[in-house]
Structures are given as structure tokens and as C-alpha cells.
């Protein structure tokens, strides 16, 4: 079976919206509702965060959603149970995002097998280094048809970007600025220079821009420099206290996509 | 100076940054350039004779090294063996932590960094960092758990007087683990002008090796001092407490390959190893990744990091440095779990027998003497990592 992420990028090359949410937030069993609502509202990819006690790459908003989700009782095992049968309801590409320790405890192969079984297409594991991925993880990811998404930042050297491009499939996650998630808003001239520098490299993989994307203006702006963008913290804030998840999600996604 | 000299041993770091199965650099891409810069430069900078001269001069004239190796007569009589105390408590700022902060700030300066960020638990590393920042005229931000800020008020005041900005870590458990997370996040947000001075032998490679090398001055001196006092550089035992493990790494460093020397690591068992209120990582932990390296850590079945507990804020950490994880797994190290109660008793005992008030961390090392089983002619070195002034309030509660 073709991977849904690589298939999507072979069909569409612009204005793709990837929305992140933390599994188990705001309530433990909201996962499927959020997933279905995102697809219905027009999200092109969905990134589901596996909550972790020590999310060092994340800013305050996502940290708090992680804490709340863990407090609600979310675990990796529970998440897979919630995702069981999701492919009968949604066809949107699904990524799991999280930190490496819970994956190691679950067992890397068991984790990959469960991803395949429930229909997950890719992974974003920010503290999994490229060398360890290549040595220990890639064979399993390949075996179970999962793509691993790597991050690049304004400080990533060109030769490293090329190396990451060579081992990437699907897309590259272009972090817009030196920051944790949700820290800085908008796109500056320095960032444009960085996007242009990366674009001039003629990489084989498309890019999605993440960090600091929060609304239609920043989404449109990012889409000028990449295949699309990723929204996380702004979405978490939007759904934190809503009494109507599907309605709020529909409004949020439509507004961002314009 | 021996900081670049390393006797090859399976217990030292390898070229890939691992101690056996532990170590490595499990960091988000945002930190990769900084960590890579350190990795490519730390050995070269440390080998530079002008760096070594600067480092040595400060250790001698500013820190007060070498610290004495003191034969503790009455303690020796009590335990029926030959006990020597390595007096790191006599270092400027009151603990071994300053050996590392001096080394790292000199290194940061050579890398062209202008600002320093650090984490602290009990405040000893924070004070040692604030001290060297004052000395070098560099801006200093120290993250400290909100709960630790309340329970370690004197050290917070010291850091402020030294010109550092103390920022509360309000996430998670609001203690050392969370202060470390916040310091890492700060570094992610300020990658160009800032150096992160990690206070223990934890974090991504090359931190554990770099910090161990700066602390290795402890065992270098022990070897010389024992040679003078006993005619041999080799004791039968070296005992040190282990939270992250920087004082232990320094005390063990030049003995790692000397397999006749037994290396004893005292972990904090809190209210008891199986009480649910403990920091005895090697007894309860499983392999995993925390703060950038693969090591042993206390965690749930789901891989969430568990909150540690210890009377000693400096040992209140759910992980352990990768060097020590390897010593535990390989059997090279002897790990002991010391409860709060045992540590307090050992602290009071040292005060009464030798007139020395030890830090609560060091009291865990002293408590290991009881079950050591050392013979009358055997030589035992206890690394007295810090002084107990900061812990007086806790000691007084148990008087």
C-alpha cells in the first residue's frame, strides 16, 4: 500500500495544512472526534501528539496540554486503542509526534507494528537523532511502511540539510525560527532568507513550515515558501475550553485556510 | 593537568559518545548545532596549554586546590578501617561543583559565547555558575524549580547577590528535572550567544565526558596524596554519592581502569527503595532517554519520567549519568541505596567525631561505611563533596 503522506505530496504541492493536537486533551476520549472533525474541516494532514512528562522542544501551551493529557490518563497503549478502526472513518494522512522514551518503553518494533495496524503513516520524534534512526530504527520503519519526518532549523548547516533530505521521505519539517513550539509569532525577513536558502537547494523532499504559524496570514505567508504549514499551539489554545469541539475545529481550520 | 589524559578503559566514553550501551546525544535538531560545536571543539580547547594554564591558576588561587586528603582518625576507629576524606567541601562556594563551572565558562569564552544559562536543584551548581559568571563578567540565568526556590532560600539569595537572574521552573514537578528542561528550552530559544553549563555528568554527549574531565582533578589529587601518605596511589575503596553523578565521576575517573579499586556509589533511597518516595535510580530504573542521553531512569511502564524523592535536593533526580549507568550494569561499580534516615545519622556522626558538617549529599556517601565490610588495613577514600551549611535547617529538624 502506498504511504498516505508520500501519496498526498505526489498529488498536491501547495497550501497543505497539517494540524497538531495532543492525544488525551482536552478530554481523554476526544481523539477520534478531533481527528474526524479536522478531516471534515479540510486539514490535509493530522499530527497526533503522544503526551510526555518532559517535552523539551515544546513551549508552554503544548507542555500544559501534555500535562493535562497525562493527568487524564493517556498512554501510548490507550492511544492505539483509540485509533483502532480509524481508517474506516478517515483517509487523511496521520502522523504520531512524540518523544523517544515512551516509544522505547513500548518496544520499537511493537510500536511500529501497532502504527501499521491502526493506519498511522509517519512519525515525528524530535529527540531521535538521525544517526540512531539510520542504525536502529530505519529498517523497522521501512518494514512497517512508516516515514520518519526530520526537522531542520535556521541553524542547520547546508550539508546536514542535504543529509537529512537524503534519508527523509514524505516531507521535511522546516522549523521557522530558533525556538520551542508556540514561542514566536509571525515571519521575519531573516526567516524569509532562510526559507529562500533552503528552496534554492533543490531538495528532493517538500517542506512544511512549523513553529509560529497561528492564523490565515501566517499560513498564507508560509505557503509562499513551502508546500504548506503546521499549526500546533494555536489549535491547542482554540480547543482548550470549547463546549463544541467539531464546531470550533471547523471554524478554526476554515479560517486558517481562508 | 590531566583533563585531556584518559587511560583507555571500557568504562570511559568511546569515540561515539557512549559508555557501553549508554550515552549518545538524543537532542532535538534545534540543539544540534550547539552540541556539535561543543563536540568538535571541547577536546582541542581543553588540550591547549594556555587553556590549561588558565584553568589551573583559577583552581589553585580561586578555588583553593588541591583540597586536603584528610585521615579521619576517629571515624576510622569507629569503622575499623582506614578512612580518608577528600575535602571538596573546602572548595570556594562549598562544593566540588565549581571545578566544572570554571572549566566550562573558560571554554564558553573561547567559543565566543556571551551569556550563560544553567539549571540547579539545591542551588550549589547555580551558585557555582553565578560565581564564575561574576568572575568573568558574563550574564547569567539560572533556572530553578519553584519548589526548590522555596526550600533553598539562602542559595537563591547568594545567586542574586552574585548578579545572576534566578528564573523559576513552573512546569511539571517544579524541581531539578524541570529546571533542566527549562534550561534546555532557553538554549533552544537562544542558540547563538548562549552556552549551557550543565552541572552534572548528564545531558547529551559531550557533556558527560566534558564534566567528568573537569571534575577528574579530584581523583588526580587523591592519587598523588595517597601516594604520599600510604606509599600507593591506590585505595581499596572510593566512595561517592550519586545523583546525576559529577562528584562521583571526578572521584572515580582515574581509578576506572584500576580494577583492584572498588568504586562505591551511594544513591538516595529517600524513605526506602520500595517506598514510592525514592531517588534510587539504578535499583528501580530501566534504560531510557532523559535530558539528551540514553541511561537508566525511573519511569512508568508507559515511559513517563517518575518524580524522585530525597531529603537531599542535590540527589533528587530521576536519572543518572551514562558513565554510572554503565558502571552499574557492568558490575564495575558497587551501588548502595541510602535512606534519608541513614544519611542524617551519618551526617551527625561526622560532625561529632571529626568536627565536620557534611552536605546531606555527602552524608549518603558516609553512610555507606556501615555496610562496606572494609578490613582494618584497607584504605577507604570518601569524597566529601560539599559542606552542610546549606542543610542546617534540615539537620536541625532532626536533632
UniProtKB/TrEMBL annotation, chain A:
EC number, UniProt record: 4.2.1.20
Pathway(s) per entry: Amino-acid biosynthesis; L-tryptophan biosynthesis; L-tryptophan from chorismate: step 5/5
Keywords, comma-separated and alphabetical: Amino-acid biosynthesis, Aromatic amino acid biosynthesis, Lyase, Tryptophan biosynthesis
Gene Ontology molecular function terms on file: tryptophan synthase activity
Reaction catalysis annotation: (1S,2R)-1-C-(indol-3-yl)glycerol 3-phosphate + L-serine = D-glyceraldehyde 3-phosphate + L-tryptophan + H2O
TM region(s), chain numbering: none
InterPro entries the record matches: Aldolase_TIM, RibuloseP-bd_barrel, Trp_synthase_alpha_AS, Trp_synthase_suA
Coiled coil: none
A GO CC term assigned to this protein in UniProt: cytosol
Record-annotated active site: 47, 58
Keyword Calcium: no
SUPFAM superfamilies hit by this protein: Ribulose-phoshate binding barrel (SSF51366)
Pfam hit, one: Trp_syntA
Protein function: The alpha subunit is responsible for the aldol cleavage of indoleglycerol phosphate to indole and glyceraldehyde 3-phosphate.
Family, per entry: Belongs to the TrpA family.
Matching PANTHER family: TRYPTOPHAN SYNTHASE ALPHA CHAIN, CHLOROPLASTIC, TRYPTOPHAN SYNTHASE, ALPHA CHAIN
Subunit record text: Tetramer of two alpha and two beta chains.
Protein name: Tryptophan synthase alpha chain
Organism: Siphonobacter aquaeclarae
Gene responsible for this protein: trpA
UniProtKB/TrEMBL annotation, chain B:
Record keywords, A-Z: Amino-acid biosynthesis, Aromatic amino acid biosynthesis, Lyase, Pyridoxal phosphate, Tryptophan biosynthesis
SUBUNIT field: Tetramer of two alpha and two beta chains.
Domain Tryptophan synthase beta chain-like PALP residue range list: 64-386
Purpose of the protein: The beta subunit is responsible for the synthesis of L-tryptophan from indole and L-serine.
Residues bearing PTM N6-(pyridoxal phosphate)lysine: 97
EC number: 4.2.1.20
Pfam families: PALP
PROSITE patterns: TRP_SYNTHASE_BETA
Name recorded for this polypeptide: Tryptophan synthase beta chain
Pathway as given in its UniProt record: Amino-acid biosynthesis; L-tryptophan biosynthesis; L-tryptophan from chorismate: step 5/5
Cofactor: pyridoxal 5'-phosphate
Amino acid at each position: 500500500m502506498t504511504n498516505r503522506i508520500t501519496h498526498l505530496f505526489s498529488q498536491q504541492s501547495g497550501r497543505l495544512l497539517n494540524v497538531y493536537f495532543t492525544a488525551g486533551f482536552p478530554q481523554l476520549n476526544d481523539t477520534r472526534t478531533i481527528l474526524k472533525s479536522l478531516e471534515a474541516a479540510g486539514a490535509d494532514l493530522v499530527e497526533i501528539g503522544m503526551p510526555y512528562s518532559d517535552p523539551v522542544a515544546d513551549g508552554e501551551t503544548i507542555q500544559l496540554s501534555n500535562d493535562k493529557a497525562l493527568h487524564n490518563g493517556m498512554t501510548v497503549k490507550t492511544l492505539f486503542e483509540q485509533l483502532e478502526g480509524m481508517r474506516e472513518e478517515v483517509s487523511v494522512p496521520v502522523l504520531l509526534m512524540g518523544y523517544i522514551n515512551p516509544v522505547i518503553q513500548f518496544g520499537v518494533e511493537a510500536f511500529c507494528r501497532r502504527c501499521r495496524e491502526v493506519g498511522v503513516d509517519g512519525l515525528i520524534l524530535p529527540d531521535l537523532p538521525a544517526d540512531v534512526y539510520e542504525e536502529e530504527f530505519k529498517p523497522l520503519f521501512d518494514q512497517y511502511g512508516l516515514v520518519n519526518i526530520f526537522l531542520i532549523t535556521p541553524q542547520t548547516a547546508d550539508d546536514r540539510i542535504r543529509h537529512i533530505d537524503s534519508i527523509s521521505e514524505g516531507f521535511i519539517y522546516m522549523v521557522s525560527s530558533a525556538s520551542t513550539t508556540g514561542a514566536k509569532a509571525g515571519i521575519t525577513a531573516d526567516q524569509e532568507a532562510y526559507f529562500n536558502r533552503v528552496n534554492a537547494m533543490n531538495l528532493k523532499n517538500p517542506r512544511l513550515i512549523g513553529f509560529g504559524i497561528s492564523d490565515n496570514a501566517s499560513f498564507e505567508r508560509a505557503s509562499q515558501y513551502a508546500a504548506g504549514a503546521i499549526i500546533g499551539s494555536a489549535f491547542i489554545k482554540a480547543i482548550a475550553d470549547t463546549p463544541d469541539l467539531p464546531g470550533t475545529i471547523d471554524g478554526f481550520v476554515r479560517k486558517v485556510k481562508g | 593537568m590531566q583533563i585531556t589524559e584518559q587511560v583507555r578503559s571500557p568504562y570511559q566514553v568511546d569515540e561515539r559518545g557512549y559508555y557501553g550501551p549508554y550515552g549518545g546525544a538524543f537532542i532535538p535538531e534545534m540543539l544540534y548545532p550547539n552540541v556539535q560545536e561543543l563536540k568538535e571543539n571541547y577536546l582541542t580547547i581543553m588540550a591547549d596549554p594556555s587553556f590549561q594554564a588558565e584553568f589551573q591558576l583559577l583552581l589553585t588561587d580561586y578555588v583553593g586546590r588541591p583540597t586536603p586528603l584528610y585521615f579521619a582518625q576517629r571515624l576510622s576507629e569507629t569503622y575499623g578501617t582506614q578512612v580518608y576524606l577528600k575535602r571538596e567541601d573546602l572548595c570556594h562556594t562549598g562544593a566540588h561543583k565549581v571545578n566544572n563551572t570554571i572549566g566550562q565558562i573558560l571554554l564558553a569564552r573561547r567559543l565566543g559565547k556571551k551569556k550563560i544559562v544553567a539549571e540547579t536543584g539545591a542551588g550549589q551548581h547555580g551558585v557555582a555558575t553565578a560565581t564564575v559568571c561574576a568572575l568573568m563578567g558574563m550574564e547569567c540565568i539560572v533556572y530553578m524549580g519553584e519548589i526548590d526556590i522555596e526550600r533553598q532560600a539562602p542559595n537563591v539569595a547568594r545567586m542574586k547577590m552574585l548578579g545572576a537572574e534566578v528564573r523559576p521552573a513552573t512546569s511539571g514537578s517544579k524541581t531539578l528535572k524541570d529546571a533542566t528542561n527549562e534550561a534546555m528550552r532557553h538554549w533552544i530559544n537562544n542558540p547563538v550567544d548562549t552556552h549551557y553549563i550543565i552541572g552534572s555528568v548528564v545531558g547529551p554527549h559531550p557533556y558527560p565526558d566534558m564534566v567528568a574531565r573537569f571534575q577528574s582533578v579530584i581523583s588526580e589529587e587523591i592519587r598523588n596524596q595517597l601516594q604520599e601518605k600510604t606509599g600507593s596511589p591506590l585505595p581499596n575503596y572510593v566512595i561517592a554519592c550519586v545523583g546525576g553523578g559529577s562528584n562521583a565521576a571526578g572521584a572515580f575517573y582515574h581509578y576506572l581502569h584500576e580494577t583492584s579499586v572498588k568504586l562505591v556509589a551511594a544513591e538516595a533511597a529517600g524513605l526506602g527503595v520500595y517506598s514510592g518516595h525514592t531517588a534510587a535510580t539504578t535499583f528501580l530504573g530501566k534504560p531510557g532517554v532523559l535530558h539528551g542521553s540514553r541511561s537508566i531512569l525511573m519511569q512508568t511502564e508507559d515511559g513517563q519520567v517518575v518524580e524522585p524523592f530525597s531529603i537531599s535536593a542535590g540527589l533528587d533526580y530521576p536519572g543518572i549519568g551514562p558513565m554510572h549507568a554503565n558502571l552499574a550494569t557492568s558490575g564495575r561499580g558497587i551501588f548502595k541505596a541510602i535512606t534519608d534516615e541513614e544519611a542524617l545519622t551519618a551526617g551527625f556522626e561526622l560532625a561529632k567525631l571529626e568536627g565536620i558538617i557534611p552536605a546531606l549529599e555527602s552524608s549518603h556517601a558516609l553512610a555507606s561505611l556501615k555496610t562496606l565490610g572494609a578490613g582494618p588495613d584497607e584504605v577507604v577514600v570518601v569524597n566529601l563533596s560539599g559542606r552542610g551549611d546549606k542543610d542546617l535547617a534540615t539537620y536541625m529538624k532532626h536533632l
